[in-house]
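Q: Sequence in, structure out?
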Amino acid sequence: MRSFIPDIMRGTKFFIPYFAITILITACHKKAVPEITARTEFPSAPKSSAPPTIENSPEAITAGKTIFETRCNRCHDLKVVDVYTPERWASILQIMIPRARLNEEQAKQVRSYVMANAKK
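A: Exactly. Output:
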């Protein structure tokens, strides 16, 4: 009479390599994942009925700088203001002002600071 354990071990001798090869082939198979390429163009800001107002007073620019440095720095490193053009800043601010939860007055002051110091 044959022992039960050698039959099980004999079966696993073939099962383990077969299973390992199956896993290897499956893992190396090319997945159907879309390829993400770098963005070459940035979307323009949506056209609104009236452009946001900008105050060019020194007080508004100074207040805008303070708000920009304190509120924008909470979530990410500060952007260097003179790196972007006013058009690019308009699209950035349209997204970020609501995220920073700025009120209308604070938004005007931040816009004043950024546009006064944007890349010319």
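The mean pLDDT is 80.
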